[in-house]
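Sharing a chain and its predicted structure for anyone who wants a worked example. Both blocks are below, sequence first, tokens second.
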Amino acid sequence: MPDSSAVAARAATALSKEQRVALFAQVPNTPGAPKPDATLVVDGVSRTFGGLKAVDVAHLEIQRGCITGLIGPNGAGKTTLFNLLTGFDRPDTGTWSMDGQPLGKMHPHQVARKGVVRTFQLTKALSKLTVLDNVRLGATGQRGERILSTLLPWTWKAQERQITERAYELLARFKLDAKADDLAGSLSGGQRKLLEMARALMTDPAVVMLDEPMAGVNPALTQSLLGHIKSLRDDGMTVVFVEHDMDVIRDISDWVVVMAQGSVIAESTPEELSNNGAVVDAYLGSHHDQALEFDEDGNPVGATAELAEALEQAEAEELEAGGDLSEPEFVAPDLAAGPGKHAKEEDEK
């Protein structure tokens, strides 16, 4: 069970908006930038799947008591990084720590006991249990879970009452108290996201990692979810979340980390993201702003002709290799790598 005094102490140290702005004003907009008071520190973490390097993060620091948004195109490695940091996957190389304590060789439940919890893009609610029981399961150190203790109910009954009271408090916080006795499987997608957050808070975490908390959520619940995420920061917790909606990123993030092809390519405040060329290229492609040039007969010339020739050659190579141009794996060539080179081929190298 969480220590109420520790919860109060953490909330008392929560940073105001002015403090957060001043804090990040001194942080350079460079990948791996050091933070004034980092809680999570990642060094040299990599993970490869079948020759494809899904994560290759040289250095990353997460500022304590703030909301850090993690963004990037699909396949950038965001969820894989979450899995590594929370013990759901093992890296090929690298170390990471929380407040100087290594977390690299711990299992998910051990990481959670150290104060780092997460939610999932696809919610993990136990649909055949009630909403209340789902939340109560999140409490740690439950004496009644031991087989022998079941024969001695007086040793755990008082603790069980405290856990139930705490669960009801969290359900009320997330407006789910009216659903306490309903099966978790009957909840909507947005309500399941709230249920996961309530269950995660049963451990009184220091760091909460949210994997696409807005995905699949009814727009009517979006603002409510945003408010709940901000309230975690107001309680002194550190929040890291994956999100694709840039309006959400600008609304609640204090700092943004951008990933592409497994690496951190940029860091900045949300207001400065649009001025970062690396971020724009990651989302729109490096040729998004290239002017197309044609002669009077409509034939491509100059750089446009080079791009057209490279694309035609790449398509021919893909077909000769037995590929299908309709498959998502086929992408336009990268002129910087030379005509006929696929981005996929460059990644594999």
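Comments welcome. The radius of gyration is 24 Å.
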